[in-house]
Amino acid sequence: MKERIFLKKLLISSILGVLCLSIFPISTFAYEYWYDPNNTDNAWELLGGIDDGDLDIFADNNFTINNTTYDFATEYRDAYSDWYSSVGPLYITESNRGTNKLWFYADDYGEQGLNGWASFYLDGNRQQDCKSCSLEGNYDLAKTYLNAHDLEDGTPFTSAEVEAVAIHEIGHALGLSHEDDEDAVMNTYNVDTGNFNVLYDDYGVTNLYKNN
Hints:
By secondary structure, the protein is α/β, with parallel strands linked by helices. The chain is 30% helix and 20% strand.
């Protein structure tokens, strides 16, 4: 008798569980985009997609500031490799095919209150009002910046933390905005933890360009 009651309760719990998942689905992926305010179904993106194009790295591999030396070029390459190996197809590479899509910079830009940022351009015109402003249209070139001044200020960032910042900014360059999920590399506060895991973000890039 007790066993029947237990099985009945188990069946009811299972049904309720399915109903709850139907009403409140669990999200496996964490990603956010910038949207056209006049059409929220239309997310801004890198024109021409991500299956071809060039990237250039304008960053030193031996940059010293206040006795701290950074290998920005390597950090950028390692950060991009994380995206490249997780997102398919992502075939923007260091080559000379003539279609520039991603430019990576690093320097001492002075006190900005930002460890890094991304800027977006369409036909040479900037698609945002400020460094930390939202993207306001489709773009054909994205530039990311690592700011040695703020990375070194106070407690200098480690190599792992610099790479995490680069991963975050490259995520912006590929079309992702900030994400609230605390496990996502696109979380604003996660870049300071040295989080390399793009598992929660990579599908967002693939999904954005699935029709290209």
